[in-house]
Amino acid sequence: MSQSSTERITAELERWIGQAVPGSKLPGSRALAEMFAAGPVTVQRAMHALAARGLIEARPGVGTFVRRRDTVRPANFGWQTGALGAPTATTAPIPDTQRETEPGAIELHSGYPCADLLPTALVRASAARAARSGHALTRAPAAGLPELQAWFAAELSGSGPAPHAARDAIIVPGTQGALGSVFRALVGRGKPLVIESPSYWGALLAAAQQGVTLVPIATTPTGPDPDELDRALRDSGARVFYAQPTFANPLGGSWHPDRARDILKVLRARGAFLVEDDWARDFPIDTAPERAPVPLARNDPDGRIVTLRSLTKSLSPAVRVGALIARGPARDRLLADRVADTMYVSPLLQATALEAVTSPAWRTHRSALPGRLRERRDLLLQSLAQHAPSVHVDAVPQGGLSVWARLPQGTDAGEVARRCAARGVALAAGDAWFPAEPAVPALRLTFCGTEPERFPEAAHVIEGALTTG
């Protein structure tokens, strides 16, 4: 299609928008391509032009809508620049993973599964049942609904030798805020925290917000070197190690059982905690959920391991419910911090989550999910291999929602991400996953978004951004 075709589509959509009620939803990209007998790139350019004019707005995972027109003269907030001063760690720019995309963009940036990968009917039915219950009009206990606490504790314990009690689980509104509690209550401002490199960008942000001093150690898809962990704990005096032993973000691997045992020996010898971020428990790819690596805390009789588990990505982004599971004085300190921060978690959301995860439909959904994730992962890997030969994937992720793609040495990953965004592909530069200077230039590419059939197109764009600038 020529440039005049893009202009024609833009003009026709602009006329339609002019007659539409503000808030009206536009057809999807594929429907528009069929309507105008145009290619997806041509439609995407037209949508970009309309968005640039302020006529439409995209709501990720929902659709594109006619923007409400504001006839009031914009206010001047320039005075705030001097009053606020320079940004701090708590006001850093929004990460690439959380940014909204332009209409028609290929989404490889967000770590939230699209609706096609969620148990949507189950969540809706569970929310309706919860809304009819007494939880819609009451407050919850500070530590959470006892039944949901018991579910999290039982999920963690399994048939392990040291079962957790229901009271060990503290219900949290997602685990990002819970990370702040962990770093405040167990580490402390100015104190050291050992962390894998690369590691979850949200943990790095939470640590910066709490003024924690990061002590990075290199890691691999099978885990960090126990000797390096021992050295880092000894030299820094740290008493907390944050890690993702199962399906780590971004590398996608899991610790080998022998390595896990050696790491726990080091922690016991040094009198240190392990913060086990078990975010991907529901996202195995190459194995059934019941055969995925077990949580390390399942064999933790002395309360050395603090576990984070979230249901937000498993059920729905609207159900921000998770658990922080700990024992002994550590649990009491964490609960006190959570009460000071949020008082309690919405009992309506807790009841929705409990209704969902105790339903037979939840087990059915979890059993089918690995195969669906495997298809998407493999399609993305095949697309990169065929259409982006400059990109290298060192390890196929065993679980999780993303691929870690290494770029040629000397590449500016941030610049590549910006070029791709300008060409309609949203992705995240790997720099955000490193506690210090990036060891390698890389991209974190998710395969859990909409339109996986466009992965080959995205790979073409990535290669073009690398080779032609």
Summarize the structure.
The protein is α/β, with parallel strands linked by helices and 469 residues long. It has 16 helices and 14 strands. The protein folds into three domains: 64 residues, Orthogonal Bundle (Arc Repressor Mutant, subunit A); 119 residues, Aspartate Aminotransferase, domain 1 (Alpha-Beta Complex), CATH 3.90.1150; 241 residues, Aspartate Aminotransferase, domain 2 (3-Layer(aba) Sandwich).
CATH class of the largest domain: Alpha Beta
Give the integer mean of the pLDDT values: 91
Class from helix and strand fractions: alpha/beta
Helix content: 40-55%
Q: How many domain units?
A: 3
CATH superfamily of the largest domain: Type I PLP-dependent aspartate aminotransferase-like (Major domain)
CATH topology of the largest domain: Aspartate Aminotransferase, domain 2
Approximately how much beta-strand content do the residues carry?
A: 5-15%
Major β-sheet annotation: 7 strands, mixed
Name the poorly predicted regions.
none
